[in-house]
Amino acid sequence: MEILYIIILFFTFLAGEAKSLKFSALSLVPHSLFIVVAVFAIGYIHEIPSFYIIGTVDLIVRAVLMPVFLLKCLKNRIETEEKPSVSHPLSIALSIVVLSVGFHFVEIFKASQLPEVLSSFSCGLTLSIYGFYLFISKKDMVKMIISFFIIENGIHFLIISMIPHMPKLIEISLTFNFVVAVLFFVYIVVRLNEVFFREEIKKFKELNSQRSEQ
Question: Where are its TM segments located (predicted)?
């Protein structure tokens, strides 16, 4: 399972640090697909049938619908992200530290303090921390949405790691978290399209005014 979590963190890094917004959005697809694989694997290993339902819904919403919505938003947008508050080389270095060192220390903490929770806990907490770092360091709206998506996936994993110990309450919380996250994501995507549309109108007016002056 640890190799699977490392692969998830690798595609998370690509989604967070790629300058090309389209590549970042596309990186969310394997990121989500491996999360789905992890959910199915955990369900199989620990014999939790509800994980198969969760994994199926994750496949449809996280690995297909959300990246498609995001790619549609990029149709009317330049492909390179706006300059972040942290320089790109430094951001890459910090990302590697947060993802690799963070995952290592969270794994140690889980093994010593929370041995009863599922293995997804370490990956989930690392995703949440990294997503928050991206959210505060990126100025580009698309990257901020990707950051939220990563944070939500981290919370999703954290809740999953608790399911065997609080079945009913946690499964209800997971469902509630999932529905709220999807609705919020759709709302952000709609607002993002409106912002891009206004930007296009503004650019069109500026271009027309420049032509009239000439």
Answer: 28-45, 52-70, 90-106, 118-136, 142-160, 172-190
